[in-house]
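hi! just following up on the protien thing from before. the input was this:
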Amino acid sequence: MARSHFFSSQAGRNINAPRLTKSRFGIGEVVRHRLLDFRGVVFDIDPVFANSEEWYQSIPEDMRPPREQPFYHLLAENEETSYVAYVSQGNLLDDSVGGPVDHPTVPQLFEQFKNGRYRMRRSLTH
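and the predicted 3d structure came back as:
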């Protein structure tokens, strides 16, 4: 399998990833965590785990997801607060029927919520 390398500022190191990765969710899709009580909108995707080793080790071992899967950056919310989450593909489920996400950063990145997903602002796409 062909591999590529990219620098992750979040991890502070080079990441070795498959050249082709299939992600289940796309930018603008609304998802919810499989085990924890929060949902969010996808605003970025890493082809494999690309965060710090400290962050990875902080996950309880019995819940720690494999690194070789897509990881999603989410504008997340629960009943108490809004925040940014970093979640493995295996821990996410579709939540497009749950309606829009009430995160204060959503209007900065997305134009509208329609048919269960957001559309990225044209000025942010390439």
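The beta strands are 3-8, 13-18, 30-33, 39-46, 71-77, 82-88, 92-94, 110-114, 117-120.
Residues 110 and 119 are 5 Å apart (CA to CA).
cheers
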